[in-house]
Amino acid sequence: MTEILEKRKKLLKKLFSQGIPRLWCPLLTHYTHEGEIDFVRMEAHLNHVSTWVKGYLIPGSTGDGWELSDTETSRIVDFALNQARKHDLKVLLGVLKPSVEEMWSEIRLMLQKVLDFTGLHDPSEALISAHVSGFTVCPPTGESLTQELISEGLSIILDMGLPTALYQLPQVTGNEISPETFTSLAKDFPNLIFFKDTSGADRIAKSGQDTSGVFLVRGAEGDYVRWLKGTGGPYDGFLLSIANCFPSFLSSIVELVENGDIEEARLISNKLSNVMNEVFTLIQSVPQGNMFTNANKAIDHYMAYGPSASKKKGPMLHAGVQLPESIISETGKILSRFKLIPPKGYLSQVTF
User: Which fold has domain 2-259?
Assistant: First the structure.
């Protein structure tokens, strides 16, 4: 056990020589009104968010990782590699596939991209050079999968020897990694370095079991302060969809907690929680896409355009539909009530 822990510490030190970012963002994927990926808009968005956020999951579920075609995923990975190096960011590449076979194949393809991008032959050196911190996988999908089958499947991926993040997402996979299964994997595989939980149940983090130095981040929204270790919570940090829209506020929460200013952090946390609860309730009427993506696209529309956002066409979803004007309008009212519409959007200085 001590040997595994030491190997994990050394790997984390190599991957994160300046320390692991406490705040991560599953970057949105933007689209033109013709349905193409809008990389100009994505870069403008990343330029804005990266002022405060230094770690990214690309593509995550908020970035349509489950819906993207293989070609789209490949182009998104190219984008991630170029932007990570340009802005000195850390990236987890999202391998959001339903089966172990598909995950294994996708990881090999992504790794080859990293090797080609860096011109290096050693995978470990190439990943570090490309600012790629690992590959993110979920358990294989299926409500009937036993913990034994989940463990066997994830072990096949971890046996590849590459730095790996596990993503608890029962809303999609239909199952959960149990605390016992997670602990067993953490004890066997030092390359298991990162764990994200979006379930809202937080069973692994709250189990009290030894996580063996795996970095734990929470992906469920709301009541942010209470989940950080600095306030007695079980998590090291966050990987949150709303980092796409409120990166400065989330960064402040993390910093305030680290500095012991819990009450100020809680005020910001309560404000964000209230805003997101209202927008999530509003967005449930949209049948396409997922709630996290749609809510963040509605809010990001105002972050991008500022007060003039209500006069602009709404953002496109991967399904090829535009968020309804009514959703955009109501989102604006919510943001206005909480005084969260910026005086100038981040697109104001972008030339298209």
Answer: TIM Barrel (3.20.20)
